[in-house]
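Page 42, continued from yesterday. The earlier attempt failed because a stray header line got pasted into the input along with the sequence. Redoing it now with the clean sequence only.
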Amino acid sequence: MVRLLVIASFLAALAPGASAWSNRTYVYVCDSAVTYAWGSDVLDRCVYNQTMDFQKNFCSLLRAHEGETAYESCLSESGVVHPAVMSMAFFSDKERHRDYSTCPIRSDLDAKSLCGSVKNSPAWDNYLYWLNKAKDSPDVCMRVYAFCVASSYFADTYNPLNHIVSGVDTSACSDNLDRKVEARLFEQSASGWEISQVCGFKYMQERIGQVIPARYTQEFIVSNKTIADLVMNLTSQSQDMAELPYLTTTSSTTTTVPATTIPLETESSVVTTVETSTTIALPADSSGDEEAREGDSSWTTVLLAFLVLIVIIAFLLISQDSDGGKFMEKFGRFVGGEAKHRHKRSHAGLRGERESEGLMHEDRGRSRLGAAGHKGQEGR
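This time it went through. Structure tokens are written below.
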């Protein structure tokens, strides 16, 4: 009884022919999907036993998408309106219930004027908008309301007359079709039903550079399978929606502590901590390591230079004397003499130098004696 009173209160206020489907068909589609996903208890609590304060709160969602006119109309409503017919009651958006993704006109010539662009589907776009609003809802009733608004746009994508451009008058045909569908839909014994409606359209057609009046007539068929497919596809969406978590808002509180209430020892400890961490972060022996590395590098350079010098001297000696034995003797004397000379100077000083000079004089004397003896033998 409560449901019948609520439905009658807002359906009576709607102008006939304002929608492609009848208002009761919109309600039927929404209630079926909500009952399947959330249960009849949620449907009764959130839709049929709802308060005006809740509806006014929901009106704020209309403001951003529908504008001030729809918002004010929603606020001024005296009774609770079923969300499935809110779009037609408050939005005045008959054009946005159109869907041109398919064309039901069988004549290609007439279809060019009677059907819109296949890329244009306002009904589907608005369905997705309200479906996202339902996903972002903070509680179950706000989600059910937004979902039912989305369901009205989704239902219109299944109505064949909603595929006809808005410039063509379809009101008379649409009213007849809607009444037939509604009657069969709510018949207790109706099953496997099918209804047909012959519609005639008057429009202006362009032919051979001229625009002339034209008329086209076609039969449209809607069956229980049409409505069943509509409810089944919408129910799958509602089931997924029921399993989603609700959007929760978190608030953060910032507490400002006056500077005078902070103890002085707390301030000094903070400063000390900063200074200590800064001191530890600095490498204390980095300069010593750098000096050691520089010293090792300089000694390596000196050693390499000495080796290069030895190689150069050896090359010069080879180029001046082709006799390998003399070269080795000279090279040995050079290296040995240099080594002995450095060794004696480093350990014996000037005394070592004098002894070396004496030895050299002695060698010279022996050489002279040897030479004199050799001359004497030649004289004999």
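Notes: The beta strands are 194-207, 210-223.
Reminder to self: strip header lines before submitting.
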